[in-house]
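Data card: per-record layout.
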Amino acid sequence: MTLLRQVVHFILFVSVSGECVTKLLKDTSFEGGDVDSVFTPTPKYCQVVCTHHPRCLLFTFMDETSSEDPTEWFNCLLKDSVTETLPKVNMTGAISGYSFKQCSHQITDCNKDVYANVDMKGMNYNGSVANDAQECQERCTNDIHCHFFTYATRHFPSTEHR
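The structure for this 162-residue chain is written out next.
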């Protein structure tokens, strides 16, 4: 009987593990399996980062409602699991999903979205004057070391970066 259960479990595991799963799970966090964490502007972008990370198979993105602490917002937790799944826990503001590694038609290297009123966390790599956000985006796109850009208008809080 135990052998039959193992065979059924293996068949179910094989049939699920190779699937392309694009659905995002709102108010759900995958428990454990943490590999790395980065800041991303959206859960979809977190999914792309997970896809390109060599070990990431699952992720949990923390939106603004996930914590009262703003330093936790936009945190993208990259996760791995030998079974390609982890326990799901209900958590307000957490959005979880799977990498696109099984979804070759979904994989793209370039995100052309512009996020208004968002200053990406991280180290400033370069600073220069640009005429508009599009010019700033083009410069970042053409620089292999640039991953995000922030175009600061005259309303930007830091006068040093306007």
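Known properties of this structure: Confidence is low (pLDDT under 50) at residues 1-16. Strands lie at 25-30, 34-39, 58-62, 75-79, 88-98.

See the next section for split statistics.
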